[in-house]
Design goal:
By secondary structure, the chain is mostly beta strands. It has a domain of 79 residues. The chain has 1 helix and 9 strands; from the N terminus they run αβββββββββ. The strands form 4 sheets. It has a 3-stranded antiparallel beta sheet with strand order 1-8-7, with no helix packed on it. Strands 2-5 form a two-stranded antiparallel ribbon. The termini are far apart. About 19% of the residues have low confidence.
Length: 122
């Protein structure tokens, strides 16, 4: 009988520890001043000599609202290293569309352009 009670206690404790974790959305800070001439609404460009790791495969859940836009995760350059920022759902901005984050190899360096909301052209 003691073995059954002990076994059930272990199973209950293990089940209690497998609960969901709700992590806060990442905070996106301003990037350094732009290296290239860009439209006023575009963010800066970060130039580094280290290639970013391969992107993580993200599980995209159900949008909290049918109009929401998925902002994909990306490797950001922080503190002298690549740091992954997870993707998240965002309310759309009226009259704008999302231009995603991306890395581009230019010669021996890597240029990161942070994503931004660009106005629709009419």
């Amino acid at each position: 009988m003691k073995k059954i009670v002990l076994g059930l206690t272990v199973i209950a404790a293990a089940a209690a520890m497998t609960g969901c974790v709700v992590a806060p959305r990442p905070y996106y800070h301003a990037q350094p001043q732009p290296v290239y001439t860009q439209p006023a609404y575009a963010p800066g460009v970060v130039v580094v000599e280290t290639a970013p790791p391969a992107p993580y495969a993200e599980v995209i859940g159900v949008a909290p609202n049918p109009d929401y836009v998925w902002i994909g995760g990306a490797w950001f350059w922080e503190g002298g290293r690549h740091v992954w920022h997870r993707g998240y759902w965002s309310a759309p901005r009226s009259g704008h569309y999302w231009v995603g984050h991306h890395w581009e190899q230019v010669g021996n360096s890597w240029h990161f352009r942070e994503g931004y909301w660009a106005p629709h052209r009419r």
